[in-house]
Design goal:
Structural class of chain A: mainly beta
Strand order of the largest sheet of chain B: 1-9-8-3-4
Radius of gyration of chain A: 14 Å
Strand content of chain A: over 45%
Distance between the termini of chain B: 38 Å
Helix content of chain B: under 10%
Largest interface: A-B, 30 and 24 residues
Number of strands of chain B: 9
Largest sheet of chain A: 7 strands, mixed
Oligomer: heterodimer
Shape of chain B: globular
Largest sheet of chain B: 5 strands, mixed
Chain lengths: ~120, ~110
């Protein structure tokens, strides 16, 4: 079955450490996204990538980095510069359609990674 | 970015219909209206989407106002498994979805 896989499900990080969250999809989707969700809040966009070897900052990119070396993979690194990294992180992918009258087919989300700083 | 407005919370009795409203007065002509729902500690899942006409699928129905400035997600018979946060989102340019805080639906047995 096609889908999007995030790992690990739970992650603990010591202050000052970098950690990398994995996101893999086998849906042949061009676009991938990283969101952050805090308790009782909506989702906020960290980074997104519409094509391999290209990505753009979202609304809250500071303290995070990404790479897109393969179509299937979009790992997120939470760096020590991120002052409040404890949150629920969600990866998503979507078909990117271009041109007039395109239909936005929407997102497929992973099951999330819960990151806690200890 | 086109934004949506939803009530923070709603309640419904089990096996009764639920109408979840969404206002999107600044919607553009090419924006699709999408609905997702999120169970606790899970990623959001797709529910339904539409452009102008009302839409039905096995999960729900989507009623879109004629002027497209509002829409309503209809769950025909609420079950306990429908308790979730429901997000109404406009599909804008670049395929970026902007999520608000959604509507938290409580289903009462």
């Amino acid at each position: 079955d096609g889908g999007i896989t995030q790992s690990p499900k739970y992650l603990f990080r010591k202050e000052g450490q970098n950690v990398t969250l994995s996101c893999e999809q086998n849906l042949n989707h061009d676009a991938m996204y990283w969101y952050r969700q805090d308790p009782g809040q909506g989702l906020r966009l960290i980074y997104y990538s519409q094509i391999v070897n290209d990505f753009q900052k979202g609304d809250i990119a500071e303290g995070y980095s990404v790479s897109r070396e393969k179509k299937e993979s979009f790992p997120l690194t939470v760096t020590s510069a991120q002052k409040n990294p404890t949150a629920f992180y969600l990866c998503a992918s979507s078909i990117e359609r271009l041109g007039q009258g395109r239909e936005n087919y929407g997102y497929t989300f992973g099951s999330g990674t819960r990151l806690t700083v200890v | 970015d086109a934004k949506t407005t939803q009530p923070n919370s709603m309640e419904s009795n089990e096996e009764e219909p639920v109408h979840l409203p969404c206002n999107h007065s600044t919607i553009s002509g090419t924006d699709y209206i999408h609905w997702y729902r999120q169970l606790p500690s899970q990623g959001p899942e797709y529910v339904i989407h539409g452009l102008t006409s009302n839409v039905n699928n096995r999960m729900a129905s989507l009623a879109i106002a004629e002027d497209r400035k509002s829409s309503t997600l209809i769950l025909h018979r609420a079950t306990l498994r429908d308790a979730a946060v429901y997000y109404c989102i406009l599909g804008g340019t670049g395929n970026q979805f902007y999520f608000g805080t959604g509507t938290s639906l409580t289903v009462i047995p």
